[in-house]
């Protein structure tokens, strides 16, 4: 898996717990095949929520872009649909 995402400026001031979770998740994601990535992403989201960890839009986009490199085209489409829906919902608040 491409490690360039770790050099992104948005991670420089990130909470240590959040960054540790991302590193752990990236390592685990590198062992998943294409068919497992969408369900893995959903599990990541649930785990982060249970720990009280949230990611801003920029952080989420970076995470998804890294994970998309190992996702099937259909899963990428599903993720993008979900992402667009969540952006529309949050913009109406």
Task: Give me some keywords for this one.
mainly alpha, 67% helix
Structure in a nutshell:
The protein has 93 residues and is mainly α. The protein is built from 4 helices and no strands. It is globular, with a radius of gyration of 13 Å.
Your description of this structure?
This protein is mainly α and 93 residues long. It is built from four helices and no strands.
Give a topology summary.
Layout: H1 16-29, H2 34-50, H3 57-68, H4 73-91
Helix pairs in contact: 1-2, 2-4
| Mean pLDDT value | 78
Uncertain segments: none
| Annotation field: number of helices | 4
- Structural class, from helix and strand content? mainly alpha
Total strand count, please? 0
First-residue to last-residue Cα separation = 36 Å
| Major β-sheet annotation | none
Question: What is the H-and-E element order?
Answer: HHHH
């Amino acid at each position: 898996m491409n490690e360039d995402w770790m050099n992104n400026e948005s991670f420089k001031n990130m909470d240590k717990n959040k960054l540790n979770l991302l590193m752990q998740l990236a390592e685990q994601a590198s062992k998943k095949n294409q068919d497992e990535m969408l369900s893995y992403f959903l599990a990541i989201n649930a785990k982060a929520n249970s720990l009280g960890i949230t990611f801003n839009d920029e952080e989420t986009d970076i995470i998804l872009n890294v994970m998309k490199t190992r996702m099937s085209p259909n899963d990428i489409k599903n993720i993008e649909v979900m992402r667009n829906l969540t952006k529309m919902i949050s913009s109406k608040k």
